[in-house]
Amino acid sequence: MVQQQIQSKCPLCGQEWLDAGQRGCTLVATFPELTWVRCTCGLIYKRSEAAPDASSRAYDEAYFTESDRNSYNKRTHHRIKKAKIQIRNLLEHVPPGPLLDIGCSLGYGLRAANELGLQAVGLDISDFAVEECRKQGLSAERGEITKIPFADETFQMVVMKHILEHTADPRAVMHEVRRVLRPNGGVFISTPNADYNRAARHPETSRFYRPEHAGHDHFIYYTPRTLSVILEEELLFPVKIHPHVILRHAGAVTLLGRTVIAPLHAMAQVVADALALRKEFWLVALKGK
Q1: Is the dihedral of CA 84, 85, 88, 90 positive or negative?
Q2: What is the CATH classification number for the domain harbouring 240?
Q3: Is residue 83 part of a domain?
Q4: How far, CA to CA in Å, does 270 sit from each of 224, 240, 257, 265, 276?
Q5: What is the pLDDT averaged over residues 212-237?
């Protein structure tokens, strides 16, 4: 099985890949279908891949409703609840305003935003996902993340949940995000954590890298540090990594409950970081002038 080169240089620092071990670059995981490498700067990216079959990256109805590895249409209430927490994490740093949910899927984030009293519109590459959102009375448009179909400074808030790992050109995406953000706006990002202990210890068996799981769909894995570098180069400045212990904009009951358990929550976050137990990380960044 012949693999075609996807990245000849590191998407973060631009260092060329030569052979494993040269300049400190290392192989992370190799399969007949694809190869993952780690640059000396710490970024993990897919260097090469055999031509995937036609359905591999088709974000059609089956992707959202039939695939066991995605199961997007399960646990709807949980997904909306989690999306509310993520939006509230962003609201800790920016005033409320129009929200763009990039990769809106079946509308969980849009429903969460509406329930929080926010005007929200979704963007997705999938015709099926956009139509499903519209059937629910939600606002959604089809479009590419490297060419967002909205005017400059349209949005106060942008939410990107597990989107950046799906592109080989994160700078182009974040350039577009900055363009559509207002001067005092901010972006919430969640993405798989390249430092996740289980994936780091056993990459050959990890769902992060295996071609039958996320290997074909994903291109880059970040740590908070490597993602922060890319954001800052696009004048988007991280102000918070990982969830807030207390959310001021939560409801009274939720706020009281989180306040009571705040010390335990804070300790759990320290332990999770120390033992690299986070499978994903959350990041909030603000648009610079």
Answers
A1: negative
A2: 3.40.50.150
A3: yes
A4: 15, 15, 20, 9, 10
A5: 96
